[in-house]
Amino acid sequence: MSGRYPGYDVLAKRHTPSWNEQTRQVIDRRLALPREPRFLAPDEFATLEAVCGRIVPQPAGRPPVPVAAMIDDKLHANRGDGYRDHRLPPLREAWRRGLAGIEAEARRRHNAGFAELDAAEQDALLRAVQEGRIAGDWEGMPPALFFAKRLVFDIVTAYYGHPTAWNEIGFGGPASPRGYVRMEFDRRDPWEAAEAAPGREAQARRDNARIG
Amino acid sequence: MPASDDPQLVPRGKGGRAPDPFRVGGWVPMREYRDDEAVDFAVVGTGAGGGTLACRLAELGFTVVGFDAGPWWRPLEDFASDETHQQKLYWTGERICDGNDPLVLGANNSGRSVGGSTVHFAMVSLRFRPEWFKSRSRLGYGADWPLDWREMWDYYARAEQALKISGPVTYPWGPKRPRYPYRAHELNAAATVLARGAEALGIGWAPTPLATVSAPRSRSPPCVYRGFCVQGCSTNAKQSALITWIPRAVAAGAEIRDLAMVGRVETDPRTGLATGVHYCREGRWRFQRARHVVVAGYAIETPRLLLNSADSRHPDGLANSSGLVGRNLMVQANQAVYGTMDEAVRWYKGPPSLSLTEHWNYEDRGKDFFGGYCYMAQGPLPAGWAAIVAGSRGLWGEALRREMERYNHAVGLKIVGEVMPDEDNRVTLSDETDEYGLRIARVTFSYGDNDKRLIRHSLRAMRECLEAAGGVRELWEERDDTAHLNGTARMGDDPRRSVVDADCRSWDVRNLWICDGSVFPTVGGVNPSLTIQAIALRTADRIAALAARGEL
Amino acid sequence: MPEQAKSAAGLALTSFAVAAAAAALENAWRPPPSADAAPAPERRAAAKRLNGAAALLAGAALADSATEHYRGAFHNKIMVLPLGVAAQALGASLHGAAARGHRASSARGLGHALALVTGIAGTGFHLYNLLKRPGGWSWLNLFYAAPLGAPVALSLSGMLGGLAERLRAGRSLFGRLPGRLVARLAALGLVGASGEAALFHFRGAYHNPAMVIPVTVPPVAAALLLAATLSPRWTGAARGALRLLTGIGVAGAAFHAYGISRNMGGWRNWSQNLLNGPPLPAPPAFTALALAGLAALKLIERER
Fold first, then answer.
1. Chains meeting B at 3+ CB pairs closer than 8 A?
2. What is the pLDDT of residues C91-120, one digit of tens each?
3. Helix H or strand E segment including B215
4. pLDDT at C74
5. Residue B169 contacts by C-beta under 8 Å, 6 or more apart in sequence?
């Protein structure tokens, strides 16, 4: 990823009026998340990490967003959505079955664990799950439904709930007490991300260095 | 935050004081009532219905205790600018969703706070089209409301004044209404796209009337356009019940008990009348005696409570001789069309829906369906947007990340569409129980044929609008979303075909009232919050009138 | 600060310096006048007062256009121009207000003419900005598009400055008595400024009772001023109203500062609130026009 918003970091605004105390505490906790699983077993966590690596593949050269750890944290705290589709078991059980099902499918296809497969094989397997081309169900849980409503949902909302991802997409980030002034097309407040027009990367980088 | 301060663990509404949401760490005195002395009204739920009613009843001189399962937030200190963390505003107790189109609950329809869903709603404050109050007789579908639109017109005005709704100087649709108390907000780029498209198509559009102030109001500063409206307003510009009706209620002598889950409404076996509510607070079940009970938990928790209050006299749940408690669940269709522009839109700035058109609420020609819809501009934040993109388009991997990189160039329109009442769409009790030992709700929903035709029409209309606006390309559809909940304790003038009468008084138990979105016989094509508050204002007046005549 | 803002600020400072320098140089270079060509002392005094009013208006226009065009990100390059023109008009007006000499200055006169023309052009640009938005001529666009009345402050500065030069030159003002002409101009300006305040206070829903003051007092003062041009009976009342108005302009700026401070985040959030909040440079326009009106009253009294 070349980076549309070179040098942009929402964390640079931590001590500007764009962040309040509660936000700092919340984001600090998220950034300090332990990388070791507290709910999933080590082998389940390994599968999850590999799955996350395909659902939201991350570029080398920057500290990775610990998506698997964030999901383990969600499971550890049992933070459900407040409802569930009747065809799915509750949060923790759904993930347990889903990870087990993915592992089982990997062994069935390739005689190896999911984490041991190469990227193309992993993608093919995940696509099969998404499209419902998995034979049978996972202890009564439809794989395609698990994929859409649980697996992808939890992984992408975790990833895009992290400051690194906000930087990637040029999201303004936390905004309280200071919000935004300029709301028209192609207009940015000086504390927003500057987008690099083709050939104007250096200018965008300079602008992004000044947002703090 | 230390556990002793955590509003999700320790109630704030106790010890004779209530939080002052406008002052960091501030308190105001709050009257307290003894559980064993009957209060005039026990109100279950403090949102658009319960909060408004509790306020007005207290101001009219009744003794009132309001109960809410949720925390009593201090927006200035408790709210972070973070989607994930602010999930704490939504109902996180389990519900099971089934039917052909199982509902997605949470941000769009289920709050859990003092102030209810108004703490996280998008502030869209619209009036019903007058004919909708007589949908059956005037428009040929659904059911008639036992209310006259002219009376409701006046209550709408009162609600708009109380909330200082910021809206356009003249509103393009419907009969004349008084000028909105505050002026409309500036359009952001996303809202401008809708306006351009509407003008090109020759249909009307307007800046959306919103319950967030465009100028200072008392201790509320004006909106700072931070865009986290649906995650909770830490500016206090949003005129939620938490900062409007609730403080007024407390000032008028009401007591509000937060973190108080009402599990059962008790009735007297001899008289059949309600005697009070069982509620769980700080780990103990208690019973508050009351002369009247108002259930205002919104369209899932209200029927759940009534059904859970079943006893030998009422085996099918309270107030359910009609069999309609829990039935006729209506959501509103919330489909959307999105696209991409070369210009940067950056829709995270400002309230999500700064412009709308109600054209298809008032135009009946060219429709192959009953009912109407409005559509409005959108502005989802990253995690919510990722869920939409991944969910609707099945994208993941590099494809998803590439699409998400275009976040600042996305633009879109979303409907609030009328869904028809259907008795098979309903809330029932499942056999699972929650942490209080109460049976949890099962929510069954399927779209009907009329709903599907409306949705098809709306997707086409939104496409046309984006295309007409110019500069929007690569359009795609979000087909899988709903918003709001209504209908599960409908009002009517026939006890066999309704649960409550026009005064929101249940037919079966004359001191049991229901005052929230459950009472809607039809749901209309506009967000329900203003209508719920107008109904609550009317109900308070009716209660006062009945009390004066000794008919209470 | 983004690049365009820096260039704009540089241009403004340069223009200011250039204008003041040009006027000073011209004064120094010209031969001394003969005594009998000197205009009456009261005209010189009135001219200086008008220069003062023009300076205040130019300064307000500079601050206002700088803030608002910065907010508009100088998206059209021409948005830099009013900063330069207002700055040089400020320079010229200050020079005129301070000038001990009684000679008219063509350098200053040119500066004032430039301000007049730029203000008119600016109104045209602002009107285009408003009309091109969806809804065209609508309340929403009157509230949030480029404000139509703002460039007029620059034109008024130019007109008052130009009138000051003609007063000094001893020439008649388009065949009319100068006092009455200035009075009518000031009255017109007051009504216009009051209309602008009315519009934006309407946008603010008159949430504070004091917001009716700039909507009521200036039109009354303008009416009294016009009445004073017709009959001396009204001079006293007009003078009183205008003096009140000079204070109101200052009080208005204080109110606006209070308004900025009560927005979310207060002064700490200046990067948003100075741009969003009620504009500090707007109320002083009333002070400026009131001063011009008072100068006109003095002239009228002499002329009777």
1. A, C
2. 999 999 987 767 777 888 899 999 999 999
3. none
4. 95
5. B179, B180, B183, B184, C139
Q: Using CA of residue A151, residue A156, residue A161, residue A164, what is the dihedral sign? A: positive
DSSP bridge pairs for B444: B98, B426
Residues C134, C71: contact at Cβ < 8 Å?
no
The contacts of residue C104 (CB under 8 Å, 6+ apart) are C165, C166, C168, C169
How high is the pLDDT of residue C172? 67
Q: How far is CA A3 from CA A198, B172, C2, in A?
A: 11, 44, 21
* Percent of chain A as helix, strand, coil, to the nearest 5: 50, 0, 45
Say what the pTM is. 0.95
| Residues of chain A positioned with their CB less than 8 A from the CB of C129 | none
Element housing B516 (H / E): none
Q: What CA–CA distance (Å, rounded) separates A54 from B166?
A: 46
Q: Give the separation between CA A39 and CA B415, rounded to whole angstroms.
A: 40
Q: Which residues on C lie below 8 Å from A207 (Cβ)?
A: 2
Q: Count other Cβ atoms within 10 Å, centred on residue B35.
A: 15
Q: Residue B334 — φ and ψ, nearest 5°? A: -135, 40
Chain CA centroid to CA A172, Å? 18
DSSP 8-state secondary structure symbol assigned to residue B194: H
Judged by a CB distance cut-off of 8 A, whether residue A152 touches chain B is yes
CATH superfamily of B3-548: FAD/NAD(P)-binding domain (3.50.50.60)
CB B209 within 8 A of CB B353: no
The three-state secondary structure class of C168 is helix
User: Chain A partners of C272 at a C-beta cutoff of 8 Å?
Assistant: 17, 178-181, 189
The token pair that represents C196 in the structure block: 């602008």
CB atoms within 10 A of CB B398: 13
Query: Of C143, C265, C276, which has the smallest distance from its Cβ to B183's Cβ?
Result: C143
For C258, name the nearest residue in chain B, comparing CA atoms only: B216
Q: Counting Cβ atoms within 10 Å, is residue B431 exposed (0-12), middle (13-18) or buried (19+)?
A: exposed
Q: How far is B497 from chain A (nearest CA, A)?
A: 30
> In chain B, which residues have their Cβ closer than 8 Å to the Cβ of C204?
183, 215
Instruction: Map out the domains of chain B as residue ranges.
Output: 3-548
Q: Which residues are bridge partners to B327 per DSSP?
A: B426
- Whether residue A177 has a cis bond before it, omega within 30° of 0: yes
**Contact A200/C at CB under 8 A:** no
Q: Measured between beta carbons, which residues in chain B are less than 8 angstroms from residue C68?
A: none
Count of H-run helices and E-run strands, chain A: 9, 1
Chain B touched by C140 (CB under 8 Å): yes
User: Does the pLDDT value for residue B3 go beyond 70?
Assistant: no
Nearest Cα of chain B lies from the Cα of A41 at a distance, in angstroms, of: 24
Please name which of B519, B69, B513, B498 lies closest in space to residue B291, comparing C-alpha atoms.
B513
| d(CA A59, nearest CA chain C) in Å | 31
Q: 3-class SS at B291?
A: strand
What mean pLDDT comes out for the span B130-159? 98
The first and second tokens of residue B239, run together, are: 């005129």
Secondary structure letter of residue B373 according to DSSP: E
Interface contact B207-C140, CB threshold 8 A: yes
Q: What integer pLDDT is reported at residue C38 of this predicted model?
A: 46
Give me the residues paired with residue B476 across strands: B338
How far apart (Å, rounded) are the C-alpha atoms in residues B102 and B85? 25
Nearest to B267, CA basis, from B237, B305, B238: B305
Neighbour-count burial of B218, counting CB atoms closer than 10 A to its CB (0-12 exposed, 13-18 middle, 19+ buried): exposed
Alpha helices per DSSP H over C170-234? 178-203, 213-230
Give backbone dihedrals phi and psi of B167, rounded to 5 degrees, phi first: -145, 175
The residue type of B72 is W
> In this complex, is the C-beta atom of A173 within 8 Å of any C-beta atom belonging to chain B?
yes
- In this predicted structure, the answer to whether residue C27 has a pLDDT above a threshold of 70 is no
